[in-house]
Queue: 3 jobs
Job 1
Amino acid sequence: MFRKFFTAVLCAALTLTALPAGAASAMAGQKAAETTGISVMTASSRAVSADAASGSTKIKVSLNQEAAMVRANLKLRSTMNYSTPANLLAVIPKGTVVDVMENAGNGWCRVVYGNHQGYVRGGYLKIFTPKLMKTRTALNMRSRQDITNRRNVITQIPKGKKVAVLQTYKNGWTLIRWNSRHGFVKTSYLTSAAEYRVTRTLLNLRSSRSLSSKKNIILAIPAGKKVQLIRQYDNGWSKVVYQKVTGYVKSQYLK
């Protein structure tokens, strides 16, 4: 919950960032430069298009990594600079799902698109925070919400595999990530993949991954209590849920 809020604020609310003199007109020009002059490919005409551009060199992405849907045809750049055409890597079609690696600051997000990794303007992204689930049976992951056409099958996912749920739709379909690829599966073939850990000692649940301040302490979890593990980070922190409260704890105090 806190990570989703943090990312949404930093990556989406670009208009709230303090701008230097003359930057407002530059931003208006940037919007046109980043999103216009490109033929529109809508989400309905090609629901998941990142994999079509990836070939066999798709960059590997963690199952827990955040993702986003591109709101408009968007230029992917090698540097956080929209004033030069030399850094243009690719044009990402509207409706494409990309993997969000980090908020890079100043309204930019670093993303993975196919076999490219670069920077886009965060205001054009709809952020998804993944939820882990498992497959009930072997099933096809598809590029469109349509089971009648075999040509839209991206890959087959074996039974019992964990997938990252990005968005669930009312029509019975779910957008997921599996094996660094995105696609649709039938929601009814997914089940909970919740993992649990037990606290080794009295442990502070925090709103951010930092020990530098007591202000981010939400509550203290007693020793021997079960928590739901949402995500483990490389820097020694884990995102957990305890009594319906989501926060961060040090991984070394879980077993």
Job 2
Amino acid sequence: MKGKLVAVDLDGTALDQGKRIGNKTLDALLECKRRGIVVAVATARSERNAQQYLEAICPDAAVSSGGALGKVEGREVYRKTIPSKTADDLCAHLAGRKDVRYVTLETDSGYYVNYPREDFPGWEGIDTDFSTPRGEDALKVMADFRPGGNAAEVAKRFPGVMPTAYAGEGWVSFSHPEAEKGKALYAVLREMGIDPMEAVCFGDDMNDMGMLDMCGVPVAMGNAIDAVKEKARYVCPGSDEDGVGIWLWENLLA
């Protein structure tokens, strides 16, 4: 099998449940780079929150904040943000809703949060109650909805943003409608002169569907949701089993 680019999601894909990159996966990604295969990371995390993994993998390209940003060798080639007024209004609205526990705002200047530190040990963030407008465009706004929470109602109130839910979680991401991994990765491929049909992409959740749909070799994790498995050409072992590494060694690097 041939491929010019390998793109991997982080959480639930390259990372196990303990948020570690498996040795076989890391070795395979580094071997791809040694053989001249472009390696890209495509994550819902901000660059800041993904930094330790980016330093370990040293990817040639990175899609972060769920597709709001796309970079090639550190150079920005894609950006889709929520305008500042909409972002401020959205955060204030979410923070005042009874069906929302916590809200986070991700901008170029930092990661703003209103959750108790003891509930999220080790997570970084700048404390705020979102009562004061920040006046910055948002890469992404996240809200932790209580069971039965109505994210669809929020989306109706703010038609300029796109909600994305995560399997098995109460968290919902609100972003620019074109802040999507597939679109950002396509911009990366175009910048690097690589045909999407020559790309291998690994994912596990709804926000990976776009890049799996546009690539030539879509690979779902064994722990992926059913919709992702149905979209994929291959299903590899789960993230806790070093599935990305196993598939790469047995197929692309064989």
Job 3
Amino acid sequence: MVHASDGWVPEAYDGLVLRRWPGATAAALITVVTLGLIAVDLTDAAARRWWAERAFATDVVAGILVVLITVLLVDQVLRVRQLKDRAYATAAQAAILMAQATRAKQSVSAVINGSGDRDTALDEVRTYMTILSISAPVLIDARVSRTFLEQAQRLAVELARGLAPGVKASGEISTASDARLEDSFQRLRSAAAPLLGLLTAEQQSAAGRGESQ
């Protein structure tokens, strides 16, 4: 599991890292070319004389190579920082959604078991659906967060089924509905683990409190 203190780009964003890899490849290629020219200059007297006779061209080529390497390396550093910032923002969104999922699941389970208030459960589920809709554009971008989003959508279906009329009419139906809801919730928790691992316990708790206020 990746933690915020590790200082590494989260595994959940490996798809984004792959899309940014050509920049690092270009920087490495230009570095290899530069080292190759240096090696030729040190070992080949004819090449050294050729460059010496063309001092202006030599200076221009050297300057261009230095600028290209600098620009590409700085670009990679900035992209990795942006990737980390995006990962933490996504993790916080997942924590908010997970906190509301817990409340909605508990409320619906109570209704299914006959001890909860249906109106309260409906409010919790509506809030969960709203947060899910807001979070979807953020969560859909990377592989692991997209898996979490898919499980969150499945939980939404089970929450709606749990509040459907007639669920409490039969003990067998209510038991099966509660079992499906519990299974869907546990799958959501498992999918959330890689994302929530980026946040400290205090940050996760703050995300849940912030949503409930």
